[in-house]
């Protein structure tokens, strides 16, 4: 895979969150993010950071499937959001963020995000 990179060793920070809920039915997923995390993700950083929210089944027993040292898989999926440059807010508790369901965290989307990070495009 060839792409133009500004940096040889690109890094991308992930703020991981999870919520147990029924499967989404809308095109947007809402998530109450603590304001401290919101501010951390919206400010410029040396290493760009994105939010990843995993939507887990309501039944805890269905969250993960694993075989020690062979595999670990999650049920349902995670969605990502780049909050860099989002506006300041005067709230002390939570900020509801909106994650498009098209932003599914997959191998391809993570590869694209890493390519963008390598070109310095996530903090613009």
Structural category is alpha+beta
Beta strand %: 25-35%
pLDDT averaged residue by residue: 86
Q: What topology, given as strand order, has the largest sheet?
A: 1-3-6
Rg computed from alpha carbons, rounded to a whole number of angstroms: 16 Å
> What best-fitting shape do the alpha-carbon axes yield?
globular
Helix content: 10-25%
Order of helices and strands: EEHEEEEEH
C-alpha end-to-end distance: 24 Å
Q: Please report the total strand number as a whole number.
A: 7
Largest sheet properties? 3 strands, mixed
Low-confidence segments: none
Number of helical segments?
2
SSE blueprint:
Blueprint: E1 13-20, E2 28-34, H1 35-42, E3 49-56, E4 64-67, E5 71-74, E6 77-81, E7 94-100, H2 107-118
Characteristic key phrases:
124 residues, alpha+beta, three-stranded mixed sheet, globular
Question: In short, what is this structure?
Answer:
The protein has 124 residues and is α+β, with helices and mostly antiparallel strands.
Description:
The chain has 2 helices and 7 strands; from the N terminus they run ββαβββββα. It has helices at residues 35-42, 107-118, and strands at residues 13-20, 28-34, 49-56, 64-67, 71-74, 77-81, 94-100. It has 124 residues and is of the alpha+beta class. The chain has a domain at 19-101. The mean pLDDT is 86.
